[in-house]
Amino acid sequence: MIIVVSDVHLGYDHANREPFMGFLDDIGKSLGQPDHFVLLGDIFDFWRRNNVAVVLENEDLVGRIEDLAANVHYVPGNHDFTFAKLATSGTGAFNVQKTLMLQDGDTRFSFMHGYQLEVLANLEPLTIEEYEQLCVSLCQRTGDFIGDLLSFLWDNIHLSFKRGDRRRGMVQSIGAIPEKRKDMHKIDRLARSRVKDLFLGLGKEDKFVYGHTHRPFLEDSVANVGCWVSDADEQNTYLKIENGEMQLLRYRA
User: Fold this and answer.
1) How confident is the model over 64-85, as pLDDT tens digits?
2) Pair 201, 171 in one domain
3) pTM reported for the whole predicted model
4) 38 touches 97 (CB < 8 A)
5) Whole-Å CA distances, 79 to 26, 40, 114, 157
6) Which residues of the chain have pLDDT under 50?
7) Distance between CA 233 and CA 138 in Å, rounded?
8) What is the spatial distance between Cα 23 and Cα 28, in angstroms, rounded to a whole number?
9) Whole domain around residue 152: which residue ranges?
10) Please, are residues 15 and 45 in contact by the beta-carbon 8 Å criterion?
11) What letters, b where the CB count within 10 A reaches 16 and e where it falls short, cover 88-120?
12) What pLDDT is recorded for position 156?
C-alpha cells in the first residue's frame, strides 16, 4: 500500500495542522514495513517563515512521521525546496528525491510535486532549473518582500527583458497562493495529456501523481493529491494506492 499527501504548508497561517496530526495517528495504524508513505512536497512552507523555526515548531509532527512503520519518502516542492539540497546526504528517516518511482502490484507510479508542470505550462521562457534557483532563494529569504525579491532574482538570471514585460508579472505571480494564481487549470490540462511524458521523462505505462495546484482530482492514470490548507475549496485529501489502484480520499477526524 502507498499513502500520499501533499501541500500541508506547515508554517502558513492557514495550514490545517491539527487535522494532519490526527491523520498521521490514524493512518499510522494501517501502515507496515512493506508500505510506503509519500510526502509529495510543500509539507513545510519555507517561503513565509524561517526554515529552522518552522521545523522546530513542528518537531512533534516530524517525530510522528519518523515513527511510522512504513518506508517514508520526501519529494520536495517549491515551498520546501531546501530539502532538495539534502537529497544526497539524506534527512534522517526520510528518503529524499525530486522524482520518485514506486511499484505497486504490476503498476509503476511516478511521483513529483508538480511545480515542474507549472513552469512548462505557464512560465516559459523560464526553465525548470531556473525556477528551482528562485525556489532556493525564496526558501532562504522569507518575508513581505517576496515580490521585490522575485524581480531582483529574475533580473540576475541569464534571461533579461525590459521592465513592464508581461513575463515579469508571470514570475512575480509565483509568490501568490495557488488559489489566486491565474491559469492554474493549464497545469492540470498538461498533467492529463500524453505530451507530459515527453517533457517529464515518464514511462508510457506509468501512472502519474502530483500536487502543487491544491486542486485534487483522480482521472484514469493521473491523480492530483490536493492540499491541507483552509483557503482551498477542497481540503485534507490524500491518495491511497493498493493493488495498483488509486483512491482519492478525504480525511475526517
Assistant:
1) 999 999 999 999 999 999 988 7
2) no
3) 0.89
4) no
5) 26, 11, 12, 20
6) 144, 147, 158, 161
7) 26
8) 8
9) 125-180
10) yes
11) eeeeeebebebebebebeebebbbbbbbbbbbb
12) 54
**Residue appearing with cell numbers 512560465:** 123
Same domain, 174 and 51: no
Residues 187 and 174 in one domain: no
- In tens, the pLDDT along 178-205 reads 877 778 889 999 999 989 888 888 888 8
Residue 45's CB is within 10 A of a number of other CB atoms, namely 24
Quick one: 187 and 101 in the same domain?
yes
Cell 498533467, residue located? 191
Which of 165, 180, 195 delimits the end of a domain?
Answer: 180
* Contact by Cβ (8 Å): 78, 115: yes
Find the distance separating the first CA and the last CA of the chain, reported in whole Å.
21
Domain end point (choices 163, 180, 197): 180
Among candidate residues 192, 244, 207, 251, the one with its CA nearest the CA of residue 6: 251
Nine cell digits for residue 53 = 523555526
- Residue 170 confidence (pLDDT): 63
User: Do residues 238 and 251 make contact, with C-beta atoms less than 8 angstroms apart?
Assistant: yes
The reply to whether 71 and 176 lie within a common domain is no
